[in-house]
Backbone:
């Protein structure tokens, strides 16, 4: 990648971190910023805990900003790998900073990745993206720090809790890079949320050892959700994504030229920053972000802290594989599956239920299936993800944030062999037309 693209991406991440900081200062409850942040840091984060409700709106934006600054700083290290995946890792981590990740529970995982790099005698900067992706089990770190071995009461910070959080978190961080590098071989690049493989399997192992094997009870998975704050979420997202479009337009030579080519991209193993330039990639983040917001408005979502987070978790691959053209079939699949389940069979998960809103976010990781095999395959993939996503938390105790990404991986493992056996991909269809 050209040096100017690397500089552009770094500046984009730094500017985004600054935007979250500004939002914290402008939030209606800005007087509660520090107390809200302190409460967030000292609260369990098992799925799903809305930081708007647990702390404060301003405290949540401050947490997003602090986590964002750390991630942006890693991307600015000399020799750091900076590409479309960096934007994905940054926004995924920052998005989860509204429910699950905080400025305290990220550090054991980063230390683990540092040790991995040290063991391989390589620079930590080479692993900056994987360090961000290693934070899937941040809720487990908070759990070990604050209330393990069980119960619903927070006991507070103890020496044993700190030691356990560090040992387990560092081990998970150490193991993640090798597993994440192997993950694409499992799904052949058809799940954008590839780091979900270590993020869930290591969570499954940790829960099995720390709870089931040692005779401890896994805390009940219960959601804590705040009231809808559409004025806050809509205003911030509208301004942020509009600025992304304007900034991308300017970086692209005051032009939209090339964006239609991006919208026709399959998204399979794609880095939009390398293929189309940082300007168009950032522009797509803006367009895609507004597209996601429009979907959540359409289905009647509650715009709480979790919804704000999943908007950024979903838009994260706007520079590395996802765009409105290959995500809309996934959305349609979710809507059709929800209508069929609730209207015909009395299901309990309407399309605007919080669990389903979160599920749709990570079902978007299946966008390359829609891009490469057609809209109908995307609809089937979305429907399959809807059916499976609420069953996965039980295997990791609600401690893995990459629950929906792992669901997408399972759907890809089931669907891709069938598609490769019975269907032609886009390249094969185009070749057939020419012959």
Residues:
């Amino acid at each position: 990648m050209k040096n100017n693209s690397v500089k552009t991406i770094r500046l984009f991440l730094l500017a985004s971190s600054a935007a979250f900081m500004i939002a914290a200062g402008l939030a209606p409850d800005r007087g509660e910023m520090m107390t809200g942040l302190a409460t967030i840091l000292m609260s369990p984060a098992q799925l799903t805990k809305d930081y708007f409700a647990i702390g404060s709106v301003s405290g949540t934006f401050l947490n997003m900003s602090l986590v964002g600054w750390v991630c942006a700083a890693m991307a600015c290290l000399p020799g750091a790998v900076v590409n479309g995946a960096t934007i994905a890792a940054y926004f995924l981590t920052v998005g989860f900073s509204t429910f699950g990740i905080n400025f305290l529970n990220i550090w054991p995982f980063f230390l683990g990745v540092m040790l991995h790099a040290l063991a391989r005698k390589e620079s930590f900067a080479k692993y900056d993206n994987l360090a961000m992706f290693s934070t899937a089990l941040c809720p487990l770190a908070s759990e070990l720090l604050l209330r393990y071995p069980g119960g619903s009461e927070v006991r507070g910070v103890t020496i044993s809790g700190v030691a356990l959080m560090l040992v387990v978190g560092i081990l998970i961080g150490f193991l993640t890079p090798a597993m994440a590098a192997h993950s694409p071989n499992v799904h052949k690049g058809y799940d954008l949320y590839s780091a979900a493989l270590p993020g869930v399997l290591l969570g499954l192992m940790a829960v099995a050892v720390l709870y089931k094997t040692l005779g401890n009870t896994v805390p009940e998975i219960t959601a804590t959700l705040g009231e809808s704050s559409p004025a806050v979420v809509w205003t911030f997202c509208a301004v942020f994504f509009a600025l992304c479009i304007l900034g991308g337009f300017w970086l692209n030579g005051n032009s939209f030229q090339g964006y239609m080519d991006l919208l026709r991209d399959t998204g399979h193993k794609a880095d939009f920053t390398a293929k189309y330039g940082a300007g168009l990639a950032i522009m797509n983040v803006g367009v895609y972000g507004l597209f996601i917001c429009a979907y959540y408005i359409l289905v009647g979502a509650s715009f709480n802290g979790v919804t704000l987070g999943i908007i950024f978790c979903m838009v994260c691959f706007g520079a590395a594989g996802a765009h409105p053209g290959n995500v809309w079939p996934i959305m349609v699949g979710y809507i059709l599956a929800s209508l069929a389940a609730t209207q015909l069979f009395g299901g309990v998960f309407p399309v605007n239920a919080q669990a389903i809103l979160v599920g749709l976010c990570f079902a978007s990781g299946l966008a390359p299936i829609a891009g490469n095999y057609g809209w109908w395959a995307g609809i089937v993939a979305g429907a399959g993800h809807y059916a499976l996503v609420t069953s996965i938390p039980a295997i990791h105790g609600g401690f893995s944030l990459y629950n929906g990404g792992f669901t997408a991986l399972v759907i890809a493992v089931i669907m891709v062999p069938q598609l490769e056996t019975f269907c032609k991909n886009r390249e094969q269809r185009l070749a057939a037309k020419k012959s």
